[in-house]
Design brief:
The complex is a heterotrimer of chains A (174), B (100) and C (347). By secondary structure, chain A is mostly helical. Chain A is built from six helices and one strand, in the order H-H-H-H-E-H-H. In chain A, 33% of the residues are buried. By secondary structure, chain B is mainly α. Chain B has one domain: Helix Hairpins. In chain B, helix 1 packs antiparallel against helix 2 and helix 2 runs antiparallel to helix 3. Chain B is elongated and about 55 Å long. Chain C is mostly helical. Chain C has a two-stranded antiparallel sheet with strand order 1-2. Chain C has a two-stranded antiparallel ribbon with strand order 3-4. In chain C, helix 7 packs antiparallel against helix 9. Classes of the chains: A mainly alpha (174), B mainly alpha (100), C mainly alpha (347). At the A-B interface, helix 1, helix 2, helix 3, helix 4 and strand 1 of A face strand 1, helix 1, helix 2 and helix 3 of B. Strand 1 of chain A pairs antiparallel with strand 1 of chain B, so a sheet runs across the interface.
């Protein structure tokens, strides 16, 4: 019962954040609603028992990746977005159509998922078990992702560096 | 006791919001954030399935998705900064010619 | 009373007590700093308001409350008001996983002296520190002024860079203790070796290099000298809190000192054995003495913080970033590798 209530509360916050991201005009408000989505997702992970994943979600996603987004928005001084006039027909047909499609998918999922219900803290998400798996079964993907991160760092530093200005010509003849 | 379909529906809603944001927004940074929203929705369904089948590899995969998302964010934002320097605009509708 | 009711009652009392003590500690850390820096500069600190200036924090509090809270017209209002709140909330929340002593036994119920003992307590503190960067960045941006924006960007870049070194220095401690839970890390440091030297992580766990890295990273995280360029008065007017007045400025101030206290608590727990110290005497003393040793060690840390503030000049921004990335980061990784080798060899 408590599980269901907590799930619904944080799912509502998640969906509200996601819709707010779509509706807001200023990118900084969208970025902050995305942070709210990520934080409530971390709580959802906690409800499933994946405590390490929840902590890493807050540290990496909400605390580093989104800070990077906020930085870039502040640096580039991104203003409010200019909207192009969308087509009326698309709005009238599209929104109810998307809702109908979504409801159909939801109904199919609920009908066919059977009796499987997840209890509070179902996963043994201890750091120890995850660490064991990461370094034994998943060692190769782990090492490969570390090389991926290195390549990303190199790429980001190279791409974002200011273009080198050619040295000013000196007045003297060599 | 929450049925797994609730988690999947939430994951689907987040993914759908990400797709809608990707299609209708015009600011490149907001488009990028919609991609992150999609990745988050997928992460939730990974963890939900890991809890259902008791298989921990779902959680491990979430780590890899997070690492890939972080790397992609870094490089993507660097590209956006580089494009902004030359084009002076963040609106994707105005970056439609190869020539400046 | 059922154990659930006891748990809820004990938690509420603990939360109220800890917040009250933390806010008083923040106020008196400001007093301590002004006194100590004053004496280092061969002058009295605050000495008029009350004996030894002990009522100065009270006077400062009243000043902050009655001062006019000015909101300049050109700011982005929602974030201008939210940013100090984010900073203070993150600073006050990270104290919730810190254990202050051993458990006390009241009428058969064992109540640990910690608001909550999480399996991933250390990661929670790192996560809350990461989220605290938003307070600074958004304050700088929403103030819509060039000093604030520059100060905010510099401060957040600095905090994000040094968070990496902070986390890496803690991984050495984790390898030695084998758990993320703060209570278990402290309990693994009990006992002595070679007769009289306590088994603290800085001695037996050979984490003195990690301790040094942690100290440097902590000074940079809390924006204190020698890393306080983002709020240097002579460089950037006041950095990211230029446009803030009265209560909102007081919130930033409180957040900074509360972060200092949290960092000092973490350093004692992880490197100096937490509440371990000679325990003797009647049962009442046996409960109070561990907490007393804990507070004494925190006090030593805060004194070192203030001592460094009164002594060193500040780094230039490029020197600061070079120090973090080119010196501390490789050193932290080297410490990690060597610790892992030592632990693998010992077991």
């Amino acid at each position: 019962m408590l599980h269901l209530v907590l799930f619904l509360v944080f799912a509502a916050i998640c969906v509200a954040g996601a819709v707010n991201l779509l509706v807001q005009k200023h990118p900084i408000s969208s970025a902050l609603s995305l942070v709210v989505v990520m934080a409530s997702l971390a709580v959802e992970y906690l409800l499933l028992g994946a405590e390490f994943v929840a902590a890493v979600q807050v540290i990496v996603y909400a605390g580093a990746v989104m800070v990077l987004f906020v930085f870039v928005i502040m640096l580039l001084n991104a203003g409010e977005e200019e909207t192009t006039k969308g087509s009326r027909v698309a709005l009238v047909l599209g929104v109810p159509g998307a809702l109908a499609g979504g409801l159909l998918v939801a109904w199919v999922l609920i009908r066919h998922s059977g009796d499987t219900a997840l209890s509070l803290g179902a996963l043994p998400g201890y750091p120890k078990t995850i660490g064991w798996l990461l370094f034994h079964e998943f060692l190769l993907p782990f090492e490969v992702t570390s090389i991926l991160v290195l390549i990303a760092i190199l790429g980001a530093v190279f791409l974002a560096a200011k273009p080198e200005t050619p040295p000013a010509p000196t007045g003297r003849k060599g | 006791m929450v049925p797994i379909s609730y988690y999947l529906i939430l994951s689907g809603i987040l993914f759908a919001c990400g797709v809608i944001g990707f299609l209708i927004k015009r600011n490149i940074i907001t488009i990028f954030m919609s991609i992150e929203l999609m990745l988050n929705g997928v992460n939730l369904s990974f963890v939900a399935f890991a809890a259902q089948w008791g298989h921990l590899s779902g959680q491990i995969f979430v780590f890899f998705v997070m690492v890939v998302a972080a790397a992609e964010t870094a490089v993507g934002l660097a590209i956006i900064i580089a494009v902004f320097r030359t084009r002076e605009t963040l609106n994707v509708d105005q970056v439609n010619l190869l020539k400046l | 009373m059922s154990s659930l009711q006891v748990f809820i009652l004990a938690s509420v009392i603990k939360i109220v007590l800890v917040i009250f003590i933390l806010l008083t500690a923040v106020a008196y850390t400001v007093w301590l700093e002004r006194k100590v820096v004053g004496h280092m500069q061969n002058r009295w600190g605050p000495s008029r308001v009350g004996p030894f200036g002990l009522l100065q924090p009270l006077a400062d509090g009243i000043k902050f409350l009655v001062k006019e809270d000015l909101t300049p017209p050109h700011v982005y209002k929602p974030l201008f008001i939210a940013a100090p709140m984010i900073a203070v909330i993150c600073a006050l929340t990270s104290i919730s996983v810190i254990p202050f002593g051993t458990a006390i036994v009241v009428r058969g119920y064992t109540i640990p002296l910690q608001i909550t003992d999480l399996n991933v307590g250390l990661l929670v503190i790192l996560g809350i520190t990461s989220v605290g960067v938003y307070g600074v960045a958004l304050a700088g941006w929403s103030s819509n002024s060039k000093y604030s924006l520059l100060g905010g960007l510099r401060a957040s870049a600095q905090m994000v860079s040094y968070e990496i070194c902070l986390g890496l220095s803690l991984v050495g401690v984790l390898i030695v203790s084998g758990s993320f839970s703060l209570r278990e890390i402290v309990e693994s440091q009990s006992g002595h070796f070679w007769g009289f030297i306590p088994k603290w992580n800085i001695f037996y766990g050979c984490q003195f290099v990690a301790f040094f890295i942690y100290l440097m990273a902590a000074y940079a995280e809390t924006n204190r000298i020698p890393f306080d360029l983002p709020e240097a008065e002579t460089e950037l007017v006041a950095g990211y809190h230029t446009e803030y007045s009265a209560m909102k400025f007081a919130m930033f101030f409180m957040a900074e000192y509360a972060n200092m206290i949290t960092v000092a608590c973490l350093a004692t727990l992880l490197f100096l054995g937490g509440w371990s110290g000679p325990v003797f005497g009647p049962p009442l003393l046996q409960v109070i003495l561990p907490t007393f040793w804990f507070v004494a060690k925190i006090f030593v840390f805060l004194f070192i913080y203030i001592w460094v503030r009164g002594t060193l000049p500040r780094f230039r921004y490029d020197q600061l970033m070079a120090f973090g990335w080119k010196f501390l980061f490789p050193l932290a990784i080297a410490n990690l590798v060597i610790t892992a080798l030592v632990v693998a060899y010992r077991s």
